[in-house]
Amino acid sequence: MKVNCENDGIKKVVEIFKNGGVIVFPTDTVYGIGCDPYNENAVKKIYEIKSRDKIKSLPVLAYSIDIVKQIVMMDKLTEKIVEKYWPGPLTLILKLKDQKLKKSLNLEEKIAIRIPNSECTLKLLKECNLLVGTSANVSGDSSFTDPQKCIENLKNYDAFVDGGTITSKGESTIIEIENEKIHVIREGALKKEDIKI
Questions:
Q1: Do 145 and 32 form a contact (C-beta atoms < 8 A)?
Q2: Domain containing residue 99: CATH number
Q3: Which strand ranges, in their side-by-side order, compose the sheet holding 60-62?
Q4: Per-residue pLDDT tens over the stretch 60-106
Q5: Of 75, 46, 21, nearest to 133 (Cα)?
Q6: Which domain holds residue 57?
Q7: Total of domains in the chain
Q8: What are phi and psi for residue 134, nearest 5 degrees?
Q9: pTM attached to this predicted model
């Protein structure tokens, strides 16, 4: 099923999400693929669609900082960073305290999480709170900003939210903060030198 990013379309997609479906949607960086992060079967399906190695954990998108704080631990420095850069193309690796998520996403101690700066994704997240949010492509292939190319190259998901072509500077930048130092794991749309407190 393909829908546009308006209220009726979002409503249909949220129903699919709640029933364990896998959805493709636009973010502020690239098209993403996601599901309910607490649903183990849906998570498994994403690994299958992407041909992704099970040892590679899946990142999560959240609707608000309050929701993020319910599932991870955040120190003062991290709080300053997220208040400055969220919503936006910055993913943080944080210590997880939600035991259910540890189990469903097969995580150990940490999770990669961000709040995207996309009106469409935030509409979805407003209803879902949390959403697995990894790039909608087969592992090893390039990610997509063009909805048509994404549809042509990806199969077996349950719903596609068409938000048009995404103009972005690439995927999100991934950082981890250790001993009050910022370590860049992957440089993306946000450059290392631009991350300042």
A1: no
A2: 3.90.870.10
A3: 130-132, 60-62, 110-114, 90-95, 173-178, 181-186
A4: 999 999 999 999 999 999 999 999 999 999 999 999 999 999 999 99
A5: 46
A6: 2-194
A7: 1
A8: -110, 165
A9: 0.95
